[in-house]
Amino acid sequence: MKVSLKACDVVIFGGVGDLAMRKLLPALYHLDMDGLLAPTTRVVGASRRDMSNKEYQDKVREALDEFVPSSVGDEKTWPRFKERLSYVTVDAQQESDFSRLNDHNIGGEDRDVVFYLATSPDLFGSICSSLAVHGLNAPRMRVVLEKPLGRDLMSSRAINDEVMKNFTEQQAFRIDHYLGKETVQNLLAIRFGNTLFEPLWDSAHIDNVQITVSETVGVEGRWGYYDKAGAMRDMVQNHLIQLLCLVAMEPPGRMDADSVRDEKIKVLKALRPITGANAYTKTVRGQYAKGMINGKEVMGYFDDEDSNPDSRTETFVALRADIDNWRWAGVPFYLRTGKRLGQRYSEIVIQYKAVPHSIFSDESNRQLQRNQLIIRLQPEEKISLTVMNKVPGASEGMNLQPVDLNLSLTEAFNNRRSPEAYERLLLDVMRNDATLFMRYDEVEAAWKWVDGIMSAWSQTSERPKEYASGSWGPAASMALPIKDGRNWHDY
Ligand code: BG6
């Protein structure tokens, strides 16, 4: 990592919320541990609740005990990190409260400021306008906007327009934490740091691409939020589409924010719309029922006490996307994501075409397996390439079997700690590098595509298909690639 030790005030709106406690503060703590925060950098929690600095520090300590167990008893980083922590009571809807940020000397002595809006997007506009009223929108001040930015194209535009009244595009960092994952960045390294893959990265050599983000967790505890979103808005519109863009984009001229984003937007614009009747042949929606995960019985979507039995919100989506350009014509991109599936894992599979003619005529070699490049994001970070090999032994003749060439990132880099996505992204905002953040035109193009599908869904009385928790989603999802003579890659 390039290190920037420029002093900065990181102000977290929603500073006592779940995201702050689970992800943001642990990430900042790790950055401090790795020596990546300037000595005078401050971390300031802001929310409606009345709380003293000491109470906030205690709360953060509790969160670290839970989410960074290795930090328990830490005598080195914690005392320093604790000194950085303070708290300001700000009701995001009370403009006058924002004067307390000035009283707290936010941005004083020309420090850069990162305002992290870990709040509901409905508040983004009013927070940004109150910051501006109090002079807290100078060019060295940036806002980080958590997803989801709206629930469709219209609402996302409305929110974005509000933010843009007081901050410029250069100051707005729209975060998608999937882009901060190490293996996702490694995908760029693999594609553009080697001569090996790029010449074979097109419809002449690749048969299909599969992107799976499978979770075992349900929506427990956040039914109310989730039911308004669903898997399409919560995962596909951002995480899965961003992964698709990185796989499909042309090589950017440089690794900088606009060059990368200019290439991603071309992919988004080339996505073939899925509308009307196409939505039934190209997408599958599901809702989880009860079932077994890791030997434990778990409840269904409608067993949650807040649930509404009429809900048609999908907890699973599988779809076939097509990219209408020269490089990808005829190559399906199969995407799927869901809650309460059999295994927690995320991966991108590049499935190459079969050899044009097999010279190996034995019975056992008729079905030569195709090469596959698998980029696994989680649970483990690894990249593997399946190639056909001869089984050793004279008596074996020319018997071929697939063998995986595995690159385990943890082993290759001597078990070096792999940073969490938010560490990398927070550091990038502090050093003002927006390469791994979304420009608004990308968000807009992704919403346009997703809106088409959702509007087709809303015109039918069909409900999402039920699937048992612990399965791989509705049977129709299995059938999606089979209709095209293909299969999902098994975990
Ligand atoms: C979030 C979604 O953006 O990503 C959650 O809102 C989801 O519903 C989460 O669980 C998954 O992230 P990760 O990094 O655990 O795969």
SSE diagram, text form:
Blueprint: E1 8-13, H1 18-33, E2 42-47, H2 53-67, H3 77-84, E3 85-89, H4 99-103, E4 112-117, H5 124-133, E5 141-145, H6 153-164, E6 172-174, H7 182-192, E7 206-214, H8 223-248, H9 257-270, H10 278-282, E8 283-289, E9 291-293, E10 296-298, E11 316-321, E12 333-338, E13 345-352, E14 372-378, E15 382-390, E16 400-408, H11 409-412, H12 421-430, H13 440-458, E17 465-468, H14 475-482
Parallel strand pairs: 1-2, 1-4, 2-3, 4-5, 5-6, 7-12, 8-17
Antiparallel strand pairs: 7-13, 8-11, 9-10, 11-12, 13-14, 14-15, 15-16
Helix pairs in contact: 1-2, 1-12, 5-6, 6-13, 8-9, 8-13, 9-13
Bound molecules: 6-O-phosphono-beta-D-glucopyranose (BG6).
Q: Which class of secondary structure composition applies to the elements?
A: alpha/beta
Give the termini distance in whole angstroms.
Answer: 32 Å
Backbone shape: globular
**Residues in helices, as a percent range:** 25-40%
The named CATH superfamily of the largest domain: Dihydrodipicolinate Reductase, domain 2
CATH architecture of the largest domain: 2-Layer Sandwich
Binding site for substrate: 177, 181, 215, 234, 339
Protein name: Glucose-6-phosphate 1-dehydrogenase
Organism: Marinomonas hwangdonensis
InterPro entries: G6P_DH, G6P_DH_AS, G6P_DH_C, G6P_DH_NAD-bd, NAD(P)-bd_dom_sf
Give an overview in words.
- This protein is of the alpha/beta class.
- The chain folds into 2 domains: 8-175, Rossmann fold (3-Layer(aba) Sandwich), CATH 3.40.50.720; 179-419 and 439-483, Dihydrodipicolinate Reductase, domain 2 (2-Layer Sandwich), CATH 3.30.360.
- Helix content is 33%, strand content 21%.
- The protein is built from 14 helices and 17 strands.
- It has helices at 18-33, 53-67, 77-84, 99-103, 124-133, 153-164, 182-192, 223-248, 257-270, 278-282, 409-412, 421-430, 440-458, 475-482; strands at 8-13, 42-47, 85-89, 112-117, 141-145, 172-174, 206-214, 283-289, 291-293, 296-298, 316-321, 333-338, 345-352, 372-378, 382-390, 400-408, 465-468.
- The strands form 3 sheets. A 9-stranded mixed beta sheet has the order 16-15-14-13-7-12-11-8-17, sandwiched between helices. Strands 3-2-1-4-5-6 form a 6-stranded parallel beta sheet, sandwiched between helices. Strands 9-10 form a two-stranded antiparallel ribbon.
- The longest helix is centred in the middle third of the chain and has 26 residues, at 223-248.
- The two termini are 32 Å apart.
- The relative contact order is 0.14.
- The model has no long low-confidence stretch (mean pLDDT 94).
- Bound molecules: 6-O-phosphono-beta-D-glucopyranose.
- Residues 215, 234 line the site of 6-O-phosphono-beta-D-glucopyranose (BG6).
